[in-house]
Structure prediction request, 302 residues.
Amino acid sequence: MAEWIDLIDPSVDELREKLPRSVQESALELLLAPAKHNDEPRPTLQAHGDYIFGVFLVAVAIPDEDRLFYQEVDVVVTHDVLLSVSKTPPGEHPYDPRPARESCRPDDNAGMMLYRLVDDIAERYLDLVDALDGEIDELEDGVETSPAPVTRDRLSELRHDLLHIRRTLAPTRDAVRRVIDNVVEVQTGQEVFPHEVEVAFNSAYDKLLRAFDGLELSRDLIGSVRDYLQAKIANDQNEVMKKLTVIASVLLLPTFIVGLYGQNFRHHFPELGWQFGYAYSWGLIIATTLIQLAFFRWRKWL
Prediction:
C-alpha cells in the first residue's frame, strides 16, 4: 500500500525526515526553494535514478480583484511513496491537495496517487479558463460604458495573464505526455507508472489539451474585444468630427452675414438705412441658423 505525504512549506529537518534516503541533495534544494510571484519555475516531471521529481504550477484567478497568482507544488515519487510539497506564494494561500487525496483508493500505488494530483490540477486549469472567459465577456459588455483607457488596460492585463498561463500549461501538458509515452520511469525493478496508471494519465492529458484549446479561444476572444474597442473609439471620433462639422457649418452663414454688413461701404447697402435694419440682420441670422439645424436633424446628423 502506497503512502501520500503532504507538506506545506516544510523545514529542512521535516524534509529530511520524510524524504526517501535515496533522494539527492539537488532535489532537496529544489523542494526548499521559495515560491515566487511569477510563473517560474517551469513545470516538469523527470526521473532521477530510483525516484521521480516533479514541479507543477497552478494558476489561480481572483475575479473580484482582477488578478492572477501561481501556486507551486513539488513532488517526489517512488514506488511506495508520493511526497508533495505545497509552497505558499507571498501574500497568498498554498495549493490544497485534499480533493485529490480524498479521491484516492486504498489500493492506489504512488503513481496512481500522482495521477489524482495531476488530474485535480488539470481540472483547476479548466475552471480557470472558464473564469477567464467570464472576465472577457464582462469586459466586452462594458466596452460601451467603461472609459476606453480602463478597458484597454484590462485587455493588456488579460493578454499578459493568458501568455503566462500558456507558458505554464504547455510544459505541464508535455510532462504528462512523457508519462503516457513511458519516457519517465525509475531505474529500479519496481514500476512507478504501470500500464493502468499510464492509461489513467490519458484522462488528465485530455483535460490539459482542452484547457490549452480553451486558452487559445480566450486569446481570440480578447482579440475580438480589442477590435470592438478600436471600432468604438473610431466611431466616437467620427461622431465628434461630425458634431464639430455641424457647429462650423451652423456658424458659417451668420459669420458671412456679419462680415457682409460689417464692410465699410455706406452706398449700395440699403439695409443700412432701414429703421429696422439691425433687427432684420438678426432675423436673417436666426432664420438661416434654424433652417440649417432643421436640415441637419432631418439628415440625422444631430
User: Anything to note?
Assistant: The chain has two domains: 3-234, 235-298. The chain has seven helices and five strands. Strands lie at 3-8, 44-48, 51-62, 67-77, 81-87.
